[in-house]
From TrEMBL:
UniProt-recorded name of the protein: GHKL domain-containing protein
Keyword entries, A-Z: Membrane, Transmembrane, Transmembrane helix
Keyword hit for Membrane: yes
Superkingdom to which the source organism belongs: Bacteria
The keyword Transmembrane appears for this protein: yes
InterPro entries, sorted: HATPase_C_sf (IPR036890), NatK-like_C (IPR032834)
SUPFAM superfamilies found in the cross-reference section: ATPase domain of HSP90 chaperone/DNA topoisomerase II/histidine kinase (SSF55874)
Transmembrane segments: 12-33, 45-64, 70-88, 100-123, 135-152, 164-187, 193-211
Positions of the Sensor histidine kinase NatK-like C-terminal domain: 339-426
Stretches assigned to coiled coil: none
Length: 433
């Protein structure tokens, strides 16, 4: 409890309920404070002195929760002091930053408690013990810690859709409603007071466990997403390695046979069989180039070259004309996973659009440039008929593209001119959010 209000604990039932519930409320308070600290500071392993400070803080909260006589100002100052101790002892942050954080968290919590008690008073709800307001304020602070932590640390919860986020926060909202009604019923029957307090404690820990499980699932989803990206990059690298291996094998074979070919050509030339020599040379060149792996991108960037060359080979097999102008350095200041998502989805969208063309020229073009710390990716493709075939029908994975682009405060621009659909992506170096 941050701000200790005056409470009437003369009722023996009320005193017994407070004595039973107070340690659980103190424990939940400690868990929420720890969650708030992790929202602003990166978690660090706890050592023995840190545990001793947390235990002292817990005992202080139990003492305050039992209704021991302490003025509100002293209670607030002691809370700030303990928050400062647990923060400065466990994190290598400046004392000034820890002091500001301690004041900020305690001030916010005090404000939440006051607002909750005012709302209960306006609703004419008898909360003489103060426990109902404390439980509600703790749930609100837990939600605050979860939201703040995921905004400041940019965790994987940000990738969860708004629909699931809204469903998730129904849990604390519903808990507050249920708890309010439980305490209303208990006020009408003093025999149910202990039951209402225990129910409130259970609701508190249910909320905490639900958010913990949700964060674990979100982190696991993020891990699986990254693993899938790494697997895709490995597949691209393997494909590129196989293509290079085939090309190297052909070159070795050509070098081995070049002497014999030159001897044959020399014999034909000496025998004045120029026409046969031309046919022999033409067949030799056609045989060599027909099996040669065409590398349309040779920037040196393994991710870009692998993706572009692989999609180019797919397009050629499906008789789709593929053009590329890649002018980028071998190393780019962007995560390979994000480049894979953006470039892979753009090229796959273009291939899907061309596959729908029954009558007409099927073409794909890509242009990539990196100038003045700005990466520009432009992919265009032909469409069946702009009046009949909506390009949005073929734009799959745009949400993944937009999320990857948003990482660098970039832009995604799409437009249709006649039967040409164009998608442009701009990424800014150092624009990571």
């Amino acid at each position: 409890m941050i701000w200790q209000a005056e409470r009437q604990v003369s009722d023996p039932v009320n005193m017994l309920s407070t004595a039973i519930v107070s340690p659980f409320l103190a424990l939940f308070y400690i868990l929420v404070i720890r969650k708030c600290i992790h929202a602003f500071f990166l978690p660090t392993p706890l050592k023995l002195p840190n545990y001793l400070v947390w235990i002292a803080y817990f005992l202080f909260q139990v003492y305050v929760g039992m209704g021991e006589p302490l003025s509100p100002v002293i209670t607030l100052l002691l809370n700030m002091f303990f928050v400062f101790l647990v923060t400065s002892s466990a994190h290598s942050e400046s004392l000034r930053k820890c002091s500001i954080f301690s004041f900020l968290i305690c001030a916010i919590w005090m404000l939440v408690e006051i607002i909750v008690h005012m709302i209960l008073y306006m609703l004419k709800f008898d909360d003489s013990s103060g426990l109902s307001g404390n439980i509600i304020s703790k749930i609100l602070m837990l939600v605050f810690a979860i939201i703040t932590g995921n905004c400041l640390q940019q965790r994987s919860i940000t990738d969860i859709s708004f629909r699931y986020m809204a469903i998730l926060f129904i849990v604390p909202a519903g808990s507050i409603y249920i708890m309010h009604n439980i305490f209303v019923i208990s006020n009408q029957s003093s025999d149910e007071l202990l039951f209402s307090f225990i129910s409130g404690i259970l609701l508190l820990f249910i909320n905490y466990v639900i958010f913990e499980v949700f964060e674990s699932l979100a982190q696991n989803t993020d891990y699986q997403k990254k693993t899938l990206l790494y697997e895709q990059q490995l597949d691209l690298c393997n494909q590129q390695a196989k293509e290079r291996e085939v090309q190297d094998a052909e070159l070795r074979m050509l070098r081995h046979d070049i002497k014999q070919h030159l001897i044959c050509l020399l014999g034909m030339v000496n025998a004045n069989k120029n026409e046969e020599a031309v046919h022999y040379l033409t067949a030799l060149l056609e045989n060599g180039t027909s099996r040669k792996i065409h590398e349309i991108s040779r920037s040196g960037n393994i991710v870009v070259d692998s993706l572009v060359n692989y999609k180019c080979s797919v397009a050629q097999k499906e008789h789709i004309e593929f053009n590329a102008n890649i002018f980028i350095p071998p190393v780019l200041p962007f995560q390979n996973g994000n480049l894979t998502i953006i470039l892979g989805n753009l090229l796959e969208n273009a291939l899907n659009a061309c596959r729908h063309i029954q009558n007409g020229k099927r073409m794909i073009g890509i242009q990539m440039t990196y100038q003045k710390e700005i990466l520009s990716i432009v992919v265009w493709n032909t469409l069946e008929d702009s009046s009949k075939d909506s390009p949005s029908k073929h734009v799959m994975g745009m949400l993944s593209i937009e999320q990857a682009v948003a990482t660098y405060n970039g832009e995604v621009i799409t437009e249709t001119e006649g039967n040409i659909f164009k998608a442009a992506v701009i990424l800014y170096e150092g624009g990571e959010t």
